[in-house]
Design brief:
The chain is an alpha+beta fold and 286 residues long. The chain is 30% helix and 20% strand. The longest helix has 22 residues, at 199-220.
Length: 286
């Protein structure tokens, strides 16, 4: 799933490629992708793109005083094309979900792999008209999001820190992969209750969050959209690396599996050398 660093890189890429250009057509290829009907998609046709913003994991393309909001969900992606295929895309079972064509012949496709169609596009008058944007917590890289603000957010929480970091209404933009990376850098168990964090652990977690995300954004800076997925994967130290040696201590990276996701961690760095119970594996062994 694209998270804050990749979405920020896409924002930067689109800002350079879209602003000042005119939208010719916005063409849905999948019924499920469009989540709004008023204003209609035709309202931005002929409008000039005036800006591209990011709200958590949402991309926001402003044109004609309206906002085209895009959430790529788990399996969505954006593919830029200097020359788009002629003609309207044919609805079907392929990965193409929506096409944005510019008057110059270039533009981009939104695609989504797999059978679970969760990629979402909204055309709205204000970003906050999208419920997912309206409920977002603060951006973890915002200049005013300091340690005191982070500590205040966690103070009222009573749950595992992994879940807190991923909650978009608490902190915007962090998903499964970067929460694993942040917790590894902070040497914190993903199952540690937020209410048990000491002041020192909270400070370490804050620094790990800012450093991990800042470095990931820097690695993605200037990359074409097509290279961002590979860059994300190459920069991850524990997430998606079950069975590999930890780059810090050499211990074997372990995994805990859930119904629709998994987390990775290093026992030596994060849990005092003790493996966490893998609930799915435990059920299989009974």
């Amino acid at each position: 799933m694209p998270e804050l660093p990749e979405v920020e890189a896409l924002r930067e890429f689109l800002d350079a490629h879209l602003v000042g250009k005119e939208i010719a057509r916005v063409l849905p290829a999948a019924i499920s992708v469009l989540k709004t009907y008023d204003p209609p998609l035709g309202a931005v046709e002929g409008a000039e793109v005036t800006g591209v913003a990011r709200h958590g994991k949402f991309l926001d393309i402003e044109a004609g005083g309206l906002h085209l909001l895009i959430h790529l969900a788990r399996a969505g992606w954006l593919q830029w094309k200097d020359v788009l295929p002629s003609g309207a895309p044919k609805p079907g079972k392929g990965p193409l979900a929506l096409r944005v064509a510019l008057t110059g012949g270039d533009g981009f496709d939104l695609t989504e792999a797999g059978t679970q169609k969760r990629l979402a596009v909204h055309l709205v008058r204000e970003p906050a008209d999208v419920p997912g944007v309206a409920r977002l917590g603060p951006d973890p890289l915002a200049p005013d999001f300091d340690l005191a603000a982070f500590a205040a957010l966690l103070k009222g929480e009573r749950r595992q820190i992994k879940g807190a970091l991923r909650d978009q209404s608490l902190i915007a933009g962090i998903g499964n992969a970067y929460s694993d990376e942040i917790l590894h850098v902070a040497k914190t168990s993903p199952f540690k209750p937020t209410q048990n964090l000491t002041d020192e652990e909270t400070a370490a977690l804050y620094e790990a969050m800012r450093d991990t995300l800042t470095q990931a954004v820097a690695r993605s800076h200037g990359l074409a959209a097509g290279r961002l997925k590979a860059e994300k994967k190459s920069g991850l130290r524990v997430h998606g690396r079950t069975g590999e040696p930890c780059p810090v201590c050499g211990d074997t990276i372990r995994e805990v599996s859930f119904a629709d996701s998994s987390l990775q961690y290093c026992p030596t760095c994060q849990t005092g050398g003790k493996p966490l119970a893998d609930r799915r594996l435990s059920r299989l062994l009974k």
